[in-house]
Amino acid sequence: MMLREKAKLMSETDMERAIRRMAHEIVETNKGLDKVVLVGIQRRGVFLAQRIREILRQFEQVKVPTGELDITLYRDDLTLLHDHPVVHSTSMPLDITGKHVVLVDDVIYTGRTIRAALDALMDLGRPDIVQLAVLVDRGHRELPISPNFVGKNIPTSRDEVVEVRVKEIDGTNEVVICERQEA
Question: Into how many domains does the chain fold?
Answer without folding.
Answer: 1
